[in-house]
Design brief:
The structure holds three protein chains of three kinds. Chain A folds into two domains: 54 residues, no CATH class; 233 residues, MetI-like (MetI-like fold). Helix content of chain A is 68%, strand content 0%. Chain A has 17 helices and no strands. Chain A starts with 16 loop residues before the first helix and ends in a 9-residue tail after the last helix. By secondary structure, chain B is α+β, with helices and mostly antiparallel strands. In chain B, helix 8 packs antiparallel against helix 11 and helix 15 packs antiparallel against helix 16. Chain C has 13 helices and no strands. In chain C, 76% of the residues lie in helices and 0% in strands. In chain C, helix 6 packs across helix 8, helix 7 runs parallel beside helix 11 and helix 9 packs antiparallel against helix 10. Classes of the chains: A mainly alpha, B alpha+beta, C mainly alpha.
Chain lengths: 363, 547, 324
């Protein structure tokens, strides 16, 4: 049972050892949406039992090239996923070009501007907490200090997406590395790494964040991103490990070994490409989870601090004024929901596209 | 699963749900914010850790709200922060100046709820509790300055070791029942309950995490008895939930710190919002020590900062919806509603951005803007101290404070001074950062009592217990150190005025922002609650409440 | 199997010890528990020093950790740092409250999730399926604290219009909850909104997963065989498809149970429920290590235990798995 939006306390309650390896042999096909669901429950990578089934049967390596083309075609036919991708592209565009797009700066407080104040001494009464209006292009209204909310939301998208992508990237990298090593070598190394994973799983995220804040400074998006990444990698590690445990037994790996390839080469060139599917899918879901986690942290007072603006912080702040200023909560909330939905749809689409046994892929 | 099974499941769920909701809902007919049959519910945020009160784990306010009407005092603070007699027949008097001797008499009608009379024995026992080194009390100040307590009956004579200006606070307070605490380990007493009471209500039960129930003390005749039969404190930690609960009639009254949600209640006719300046005030301290920014050791820079902050604008922007017209605070020692209040800071440092730039330039600083401008990004650098970029510390989780910081940041940026945000949790800020003096500027609220000015030395004298700014001015310290030993209020005022006007204002160890407003919100059907800015809080006049 | 379990338990013990040391260090260095005293007027530095001495705050971390270990075993998790209040009675109380909340939410989420998931799978791409999908995804995309606040606001609005408060919006019980059956119904009444909030996320997850699992099974060879053999559709679904699809849900749920105790922090905060999450956050913010450690020991044990249960269950339920 989790609220899935805080690290640690809802991190992946993942599968273990032999169960995973066996599952990959036993289960015939990946279950579309399955891992997506599990990932979402915990925020990042999770049980992944059906994922393992994505470890296809032998001969996959030869089919690799046509596999991707095939997958791309299937993805495009999945209309909802395409929509999600489109939305994410817009969000990415907004994030990258935020300073150009935003009509105002995100921290411009009109009534502190000495020039403006001379023209209009009544600025405080007139600019604070205004609802959405076309006057002055305050399409999302203004906030408690009269700052343009549309700009705040735009910069908020930038910060939140940045943090989320950073967390997804770093946690995937760490998780895949650890999972690959554990799964490939097995034995005591596997055991050690999995116990280490357990340890991270068991730590309460809030305690870690509090300590990190004390030592590394509070509220900096980069630092929050690092901490979250260090807590989110466990799910991917489990999945990759399970996949490697099963892949290890496959003939093409034996063949590579027999021909004298080094361990590193086998892992990187032969085995990892076969796990890209589940890894990518899980990574997309980490993005969604990270955004929601940041919101939850801001609500509890642990997250990003002023002057940075992030979507979760905007909601947490706006919530304090009650319902009269509904736009302060609604707009960032909508944006979060839309982005999270889009990410989930894309992940779902990727899942469907990369699973060759899903027969009824009606778009 | 067959369709029918699924529908059956959903149906069963709906039936179960309605079984629960139905009777429960109908069991609550129109509870239109009305106190029910003699019970009034007060909503508060934090519950007390124990019923003991002045112990090291104390939460003064949370515990006091419950126990101030149980351990009833000879006097209590009224809503103008003046002592008024309750269990005492008359105000305590000074009978001898040296050694300082005070005498007061409990009323004949002052008895414990178990029938025993309240006497000097109780006061003496209380004094022993606070001076016993085994007891983990949070403060022995005042109690350890008492040399002797004489008397066995209703009249108490207290002899102090030296002239002690704040004597009334330690004479007027509530006392423990000697006959109950005799021979007991006070560190374990009153953990979760209190068996007797000397005030309008007595303790009945405590559901930890939810509520504390108090009932009318029928043996209380020393003052007006309560009209309600029962007072219940409900504890709701989340700010939004607290206000929602008040709206939904889950409580009838609440006292609150400034919160933006209060604005909704001002507009609502079903509620009455009372507002009064609190004794607590918001301020920004500057660091003089070695770990602070070297620029802060220069007086002209400190004065520039004071001139560059528009305090009135901050008060306006933040409080216009809940406390319109809130003035900036212009004295570090007196509050606007107090007799000794003089406007020092407003006169000395009126907001003037051009002046800031002139001061800095005149002292050789370069690199900053020529004119104040909202789009300025240039920061001044001053000879031998470097760039004027200061670390500004404050607590997380307080939106008004965060907003105040952001306004200040913009105001100072317009004139070429930079503030870097450093938000920390209370545990870190007050536990590590503040005492280590490893900060440049820091903003927080001092919790104060009406007599805190007597111990202003703790904050501003050399080596003061809470002087974390490390400001040290010998002459000012001499004046401030004399205050706790001066018995005459008029003489104390002169000393404090001299200290502030001649030294503190000129040196700027701290900048006062504004006096925080204190609020009381209650349903219109409940009459009586008013704001009491002291630790007595809203229930100080619960005997006057009616519905 | 037994050796496997024994080995896992042993490793879990090591993990628990390591976690306990780590968290103790985190909490001890991340802030000063005496912070509030330093800004309370009239508190002499001597008093603060005395407390620090009494509680060994000036000693090195390892020594302080050792004191905790001793206290935990000999004194039932010890006492709070300030005020020496015993921890176990409070912990027990909040644990009971949280368990009521999370178990109810988990059971309802499971039931509804499985039901909706199966039905969606049977009627794939139908209106019901798409609606279910959308709601599932919504449930996973909305910030929990915002949803909780909206529920509260909704209840207040209804109260203002009709004068009836259909649900309480905070705390665990009424001012006068009564006793016996009245107490129980009152408690249920107070838990409805929090359960709703908690349940949404997991129900979405279970329904998605159940749907996917069912789909996979329905398309599999042995189901096709069953149909080809002429078995009635109902039997095919109930006896073969459903049961097999359930296996992975069971293990998924078992893992979820491990995280139950620590998973309701936001819900408890918003609804002011006297539960473990709130207890943990308050202790953490006061930088008081002992209650945090007690919380950790219980939740960590729960997590590792249920991880093991899930593994064993999976091995038991799926006859193709064997443990060495």
């Amino acid at each position: 049972m989790t609220e899935h939006q805080l690290p640690g306390d809802m991190r992946p309650q993942d599968r273990e050892e032999v169960g995973l390896a066996a599952a990959s042999v036993a289960r015939p096909a990946g279950a579309p949406g399955a891992s997506a669901a599990m990932v979402q429950q915990d925020g990042t990578g999770a049980i992944g039992l059906p994922d393992l089934a994505l470890a296809h049967e032998t001969g996959l390596e030869l089919e690799a090239r046509s596999q991707w083309a095939y997958a791309r075609k299937r993805f495009i036919r999945h209309r909802v996923a395409l929509l999600g991708l489109f939305v994410l592209a817009i969000a990415g565009f907004v994030a990258i070009f935020a300073p150009r797009i935003a009509p105002y700066g995100y921290d411009e407080i009109p009534f502190t501007d000495p020039v403006k104040l001379v023209e209009n001494p009544n600025l405080i009464a007139e600019t604070l907490n205004q609802g959405p209006t076309t006057r002055g292009w305050h399409l999302m209204g203004t906030d408690q200090l009269g700052r343009d909310y549309l700009s705040r939301v735009i910069f908020g998208i930038r910060t939140s997406l940045w943090v989320a992508l950073f967390v997804a990237f770093v946690s995937t990298a760490i998780g895949a590395a650890i999972g690959a090593i554990a799964g490939y070598f097995g034995g005591w190394l596997d055991n050690l790494l999995m116990r280490f994973t357990d340890l991270i799983l068991v730590l309460p995220g809030l305690a870690v964040l509090l300590t990190a804040a004390q030592f590394f400074g509070q509220g900096n998006p980069l630092k929050i991103g690092i901490i979250l990444a260090l807590l989110f990698w466990t799910g991917i590690a489990r999945i990759v490990r399970g996949l490697f445990l099963s892949l290890r037994e496959k003939e093409f790996v034996e063949a590579a070994k027999a021909s004298g390839a080094s361990d590193m080469r086998i892992i990187l060139r032969h085995m990892l490409p076969n796990t890209v599917g589940p890894i990518v899918v899980n990574a997309t879901l980490v993005v969604a989870a990270a955004i929601l986690t940041e919101a939850a942290l801001s609500f509890l007072g642990f997250g990003i601090q002023p002057p940075h603006a992030a979507l979760g912080k905007l909601i947490a702040d706006g919530q304090q004024q009650g319902l009269a200023t509904w736009w302060l909560v609604t707009f960032p909330g909508l944006v979060i929901a839309i982005i999270a939905l889009a990410v989930n749809f894309v992940g779902d689409g990727l899942r469907d596209a990369l699973d060759p046994t899903q027969r009824r892929i009606r778009a | 699963m067959r369709k029918s099974s699924l529908l059956a499941l959903v149906g069963a769920f709906a039936v179960a749900a309605s079984l629960v909701i139905g009777p429960a809902a109908s069991a609550k007919p129109a509870k239109v914010n009305q106190a029910t049959a003699g019970t009034v519910v007060i909503i508060h945020d934090q519950e007390p850790p124990t019923m003991r009160g002045s112990w090291e784990d104390n939460n003064l306010l949370a515990t006091g709200l419950v126990t101030n009407n149980i351990w009833y005092g000879c006097e209590i603070y009224n809503n103008f922060a003046k002592f008024v007699p309750r269990l005492c027949a008359a105000k305590p008097k000074i009978v001898k100046r040296s050694p300082l001797t005070i005498r007061f008499t409990y009323k004949k009608s002052a008895v414990w709820s178990d029938g025993k009379p309240i006497t000097a024995k109780d006061y003496r026992a209380t004094w022993k509790v606070f001076t016993n080194p085994h007891n983990n009390v949070v403060s022995r100040t005042g109690w350890e300055d008492i040399r002797a307590v004489r008397g066995t009956g209703k009249t108490v004579t207290v002899v102090f070791k030296k002239p002690f200006a704040d004597w009334e606070s330690y004479v007027a307070g509530g006392v423990y029942p000697a006959h109950i605490i005799a021979g007991k380990d006070m560190n374990q007493m009153f953990q979760s309950s209190i068996p007797v009471s000397s005030g309008p209500w007595k303790f009945q039960s405590w559901q930890k995490g939810t509520q504390i129930t108090l009932v009318k003390n029928t043996r209380f005749h020393a003052w007006k008895p309560m009209r309600f039969d029962r007072v219940v404190f409900r504890y709701i930690l989340d700010t939004n939930a607290r206000f929602q609960a008040l709206r939904a009639g889950e409580g009838q009254a609440m006292q609150s710190q400034p919160q933006l949600q209060i604005a909704d209640f001002l507009k609502d006719r079903k509620f009455v919002v009372e507002r009064k300046p609190d004794i607590a005030y918001e301020h920004v301290d500057l660091q003089f020590g070695a770990k602070g920014h070297p620029a802060l050791k220069k007086t002209f820079i400190r004065r520039a900062i004071a001139t560059g902050i528009n305090r009135q604008q901050i008060a306006d922007a933040l409080y216009r919806t809940i406390s319109p017209g809130l003035p900036a605070l212009n004295s570090l020692i007196y509050k606007p509603f107090e007799a000794g209040y003089v406007n020092y800071w407003g006169k000395q440092y009126p907001f003037n951005q051009a002046r800031v730039i002139n001061i800095l330039k005149a002292n050789g600083c370069t690199g900053g803007p020529d004119r104040p401008s909202a789009s300025n990004n240039d920061i001044f650098s001053c000879p031998s101290v470097g760039k004027l970029s200061f670390r500004f510390f404050t607590t997380t989780g307080n939106q008004l404070r965060a907003l105040a910081f952001e306004i200040m940041q913009r105001q100072l940026k317009s004139v070429g001074i930079e503030l870097q945000a450093r938000f920390q949790t209370g545990g870190v800020l007050f536990g590590t950062t503040l005492p280590s003096s490893d900060w440049d500027l820091i903003m927080f609220t001092y919790g104060q009592t009406p007599t805190s000015k007597i111990t202003a030395k703790d904050l501003y004298a050399c080596g003061g217990d809470q002087n974390y700014s490390l400001w040290c001015n010998k002459k000012a310290s001499a004046l401030l150190n004399k205050v706790p030993l001066t018995l005459s209020a008029a003489a104390r005022t002169k000393l404090l005025h001299a200290a502030e006007s001649q030294y503190i204002v000129k040196a700027v160890p701290s900048i006062p922002l504004y006096s925080r407003p204190a609020f009381t919100i209650h349903s219109r059907t409940l009459r009586g609650p008013v704001v009491n800015p002291t630790t007595e809080g809203m229930p100080w006049n619960v005997s006057d409440w009616t519905s | 199997m037994l050796t496997y379990i024994a080995r896992r338990l042993l490793y879990s013990l090591v993990v628990l010890i390591a976690a306990s040391f780590l968290v103790f260090t985190f909490v001890s260095v991340s802030g000063d528990p005496l912070a509030a005293l330093r800004v309370t007027p009239n508190v002499h530095p001597d008093i603060i020093e005395r407390i620090a001495e009494r509680k060994h705050l000036n000693e090195p971390i390892v020594a302080r950790y050792w004191y905790w270990v001793k206290d935990a075993f000999t004194n039932k998790f010890g006492t709070t740092l300030l005020g020496d209040r015993p921890i176990l009675p409070d912990l027990w109380r909040v644990m009971k409250n949280t368990l009521q909340l999370v178990i109810a939410a988990e059971l309802i989420a499971l039931t509804l999730g499985i039901g909706i998931g199966v039905y969606s799978a049977l009627r794939q791409y139908s209106f019901f399926d798409y609606t279910g999908t959308t709601f599932s995804f919504l449930g996973l995309a909305i910030p929990v604290f915002w949803f909780a606040l909206m529920l509260q606001v909704g209840v207040v609005k209804i109260y203002e219009w009709t004068g009836h408060r259909i649900f309480p919006i905070a705390n665990l019980s009424d001012v006068d909850p009564g006793s016996g059956i009245h107490f129980v119904t009152d408690r249920i009444h107070h838990l409805i909104l929090p359960v709703l909030v908690l349940m949404i996320v997991n129900m979405a997850t279970y329904s998605r997963f159940m749907r996917a699992s069912m789909l996979e099974v329905l398309n599999s060879d042995y189901v096709r065989t069953g149909r080809a053999k002429g078995l009635p559709e109902r039997k095919v679904i109930m006896r073969h498809a459903f049961r097999n699809a359930l296996i992975t849900i069971v293990t998924l749920s078992a893992l979820s149970w491990g995280g139950l105790l620590s998973g309701a922090i936001i819900t408890e905060t918003v609804f002011s429920l006297d539960g473990m999450g709130l207890y943990f956050v308050n202790s953490l913010l006061s930088n008081d290590p002992y209650p945090v450690m007690a919380f950790l020991m219980i939740t960590a044990s729960s997590i590792v235990f249920f991880n093991l249960v899930a593994d064993v269950l999976y091995g038991v339920l799926d006859p193709r798995i064997r443990y060495d």
